[in-house]
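Thanks for the sequence, V.! I ran Transglycosylase SLT domain-containing protein right away. Repeating your input here for the record:
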Amino acid sequence: MENTKQFVRGLVLLPFLTVGSPIAMFHNNVVAFSPEAQSTYVSLSEEHAKKIDAYFSTRSMPLEGYGAKMVKVAEENNIDWRLLPAIAIKESTGGKFACHNNPFGWGSCQIKFKNFDEAIDTVAMNLGGNNPATERFYKNTETKIKLHHYNGTVVPTYTHEVMKFMDLIEQGA
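Predicted structure:
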């Protein structure tokens, strides 16, 4: 019971700790990252993009070169940076067997995209819970739950297989 009270207190205090006092909202204070923090953030994003592209490159996958795009939209949609490339690997061997520019098999591969960029944007938006039509499956859920809804109800091993690809991407394997 005491742990529950502490948790609830933390939820109440969290907005104040992250935003500041309610009075501070009326001031035009600009918070900027220090140059060191910015370079660390950029370096990490670049490192992630390089890992994705390296994985695709060593396997001659058509999605090579889309690593930076995938990392960017993952950050914008608050999803794991490895999720999109891992799904693409599982669904289309990194774009080798993409149907209609749809390397993610989104919509059982019935949805056609103009290009890979549009597919990346659309799938990231959905997985991030930012589409009212699909948010009930993806909004505020952890990666394993997202994968379960994505295809885990049809293929019981799906979540595990995609998570394995995520690990391989991160390891640079």
